[in-house]
Amino acid sequence: xSIRRRLAVYAAAVVVASGVVALAVQGPAQAHGAPLVxxxxxxxxxxxxxxPQGNIVPKNPACAAAVAQSxxxxxxxxxxxxxxxxxxxxxxxxxxxxxxxGANPGYLGFDLARTDWPVTHLTAGAQIQIRYNNWAHHxxxxxxxxxxxxxxxTRPLAWSDLEEQPFSVVTxxxxxxxxxxxxxxxxxxxxxxxNKSGRHIIYMRWVRxxxxxxxxxxxxxxxxxxxxxxxxxxxxxxxxxxxxGNGACNVSIAITNSWPGGFQxxxxxxxxxxxxTGWVVTVTSPAGQxxxxxxxxxxxxxSGGTAQVRNADWNGSIPANGSTTFGFLxxxxxxxxxxxxxxxxx
Length: 346
Description:
The protein is mainly beta. It contains three helices and 19 strands. The strands form four sheets. Strands 2, 3, 5, 6, 9, 10 and 11 form a seven-stranded mixed sheet that branches.
């Protein structure tokens, strides 16, 4: 079975259990934040490389190349692409070719000019809700730019590759969750640039107003009529050997309770015929329904009636012909029906 995951990225969260945070941080962490929607290179590569055991083993070739240059600490600290001395400076301070890393020596691998970074699929001119992780809260202003039509992913990003004006600027937007958690974020609505097609980069700066510290990020996108799906995560040239615990999985869903405007359900994930070491379930809800909460799993994506749930850190490994479950709550405009679902091993 292909392990490609298409992630709708209008929500990104990692659920923790028993008071144990599922994020492992190695080395001196500079914990502040990075875009979750559209996902930055460091964030999506972190998702790509994170194993059920908490290690970082990138599968995407671009992510692997970035880690080969900058080390795994760049992904354990995916939220730390910053310069403490930037003070709002751009051209002439951050050199061309180092925009994605902010010329931070620990992240230079993410400046690599490649066509195989994980990519978010968007629609030009559409409105999205930008979400920026708020691991540490700071007042300031966010600037979001897009590349010119003349830019090519085969060369490192330069200041002249960006449209002169940001398409979105917001100061001190609202936030939910955090600090110190993956599922906390600032959020605001933005209208994507019109008349864009093909591959681009959305480049973001977060300029703090209470210090000289600034944050930088590159989010690879493609304007192809998409609704926030992400491709390029968990994709490798050769799929895992089923004998090593990456066989197929399937899923069934049942409604266990309902009430006016809402319902509760349970999904059963089964490994057959071989053991698996991790799974992602894509849940497609009927019109008028949506998933609102998940337990015993991580709700990593939720948009337009499609949600994706990744295993928790304790129930990803399922023996051959074994099973596990996760529960969820949903909203419904009428009598709820059981959603459909598919399962992919990771």
